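Per your request, structure below.
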């Protein structure tokens, strides 16, 4: 497969569209993209037509230079390593009734949080909470990145709860991301007109959306200005932002630049997995205008904060770590949720994220109750 195919997906162009623009059949263009199969005659002129067309559509010079190179496939070793990491993470674990009786728990210490006071503040979390709080008084362009189960959605809920609790004049727009993917082959892309529509409907549910793109963007700007002059601030929050396409990420920068005099009108908060950070990498020229304006904040594993995290969560059910865990159990948990370094120059990969830790401890509690062990030992941790 050529890198050309990935470029088409990034630019949201169909193979048939490129085929029509360059004067060959869709089947022939599909053969080029997927199998590097070129017509016998006119190969160089066809490459030039493809390059010219994609340049017209906004592809960068560095992208155009590698269009016809073969895309590297993930190696078997890399796939095996990824599979090994995934194997270490348990599915969602329920806390059984007999386990609650065994450990005298009145509630699940790793259940859903119900208040802002229950959020555990690592330095990363405290910083991101402070950055999100600033969106209530000034406009920010922020990307929150973390692995699955790192606590990203908890921080979003914390922000929404704070707005409600403090009765802030802040309007939060959260476009639906059901089925969201970064290309229309795997799912549905979220485009700039969709985002504009979502913001307009959130600010003014009775508004009749204008049909043309120009009229709709004008309508969006007008609604934002009128709402801001009425005393409101606006925050656009997009979950699963790692599934946004590169063009949409670039368009968001233009949403952020909407203003009324010296006042920006919209804060933007993107929430996604590490793939979002990869899309916003500094060495990607196609997103340089976004990278220069967006603040990237990463949720790191618990690591040295593991003991404090467990103490915090168990305190919610009036317990201490020593009530449930034997000495050495936490060391076993650290070892179990750490992937050894893949080579001499690499660092071990920690999977000590809140969700993974909660699932492991819950499974260990269930097993300890099942075998009649008074506390969780290192052997119990290793057995789940």
């Amino acid at each position: 497969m050529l890198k050309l195919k990935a470029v088409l997906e990034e630019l949201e162009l169909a193979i048939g569209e490129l085929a029509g623009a360059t004067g060959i059949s869709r089947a022939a263009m599909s053969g080029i993209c997927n199998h590097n199969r070129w017509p016998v005659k006119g190969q160089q002129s066809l490459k030039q037509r493809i390059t010219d067309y994609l340049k017209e559509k906004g592809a960068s010079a560095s992208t155009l230079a590698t269009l016809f190179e073969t895309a590297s496939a993930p190696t078997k070793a890399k796939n095996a390593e990824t599979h090994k990491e995934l194997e270490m993470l348990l599915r969602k674990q329920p806390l059984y009734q007999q386990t609650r009786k065994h450990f005298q728990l009145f509630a699940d210490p790793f259940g859903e949080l119900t208040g802002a006071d229950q959020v555990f503040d690592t330095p990363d979390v405290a910083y991101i909470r402070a950055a999100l709080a600033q969106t209530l008084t000034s406009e920010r362009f922020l990307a929150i990145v973390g692995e699955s189960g790192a606590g990203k959605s908890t921080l979003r809920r914390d922000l929404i709860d704070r707005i409600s609790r403090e009765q802030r004049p802040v309007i939060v727009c959260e476009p639906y991301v059901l089925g969201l993917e970064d290309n229309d082959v795997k799912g549905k892309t979220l485009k700039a007109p969709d985002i504009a529509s979502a913001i307009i409907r959130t600010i003014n549910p009775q508004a009749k959306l204008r049909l043309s793109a120009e009229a709709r963007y004008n309508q969006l700007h007008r609604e934002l200005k009128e709402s801001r002059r009425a005393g409101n601030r606006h925050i656009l929050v997009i979950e699963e932002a790692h599934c946004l396409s590169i063009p949409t990420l670039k368009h968001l920068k233009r949403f952020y630049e909407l203003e009324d005099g010296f006042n920006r009108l919209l804060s933007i908060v993107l929430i996604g997995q590490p793939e979002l950070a990869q899309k916003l990498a500094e060495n990607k020229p196609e997103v340089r205008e976004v990278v220069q304006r967006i603040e990237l904040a990463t949720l790191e594993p618990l690591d040295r904060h593991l003991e404090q995290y467990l103490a915090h969560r168990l305190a919610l059910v009036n317990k201490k770590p020593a009530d449930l865990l034997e000495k050495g159990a936490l060391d076993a948990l650290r070892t179990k949720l750490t992937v050894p370094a893949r080579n001499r120059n690499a660092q071990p990969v920690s999977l000590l994220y809140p969700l993974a830790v909660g699932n492991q401890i819950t499974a260990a509690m269930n097993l300890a109750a099942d075998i009649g062990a008074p506390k969780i030992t290192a052997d119990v941790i290793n057995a789940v």
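Residues 74-87 have pLDDT under 50 and may be disordered.

Regards,
D.
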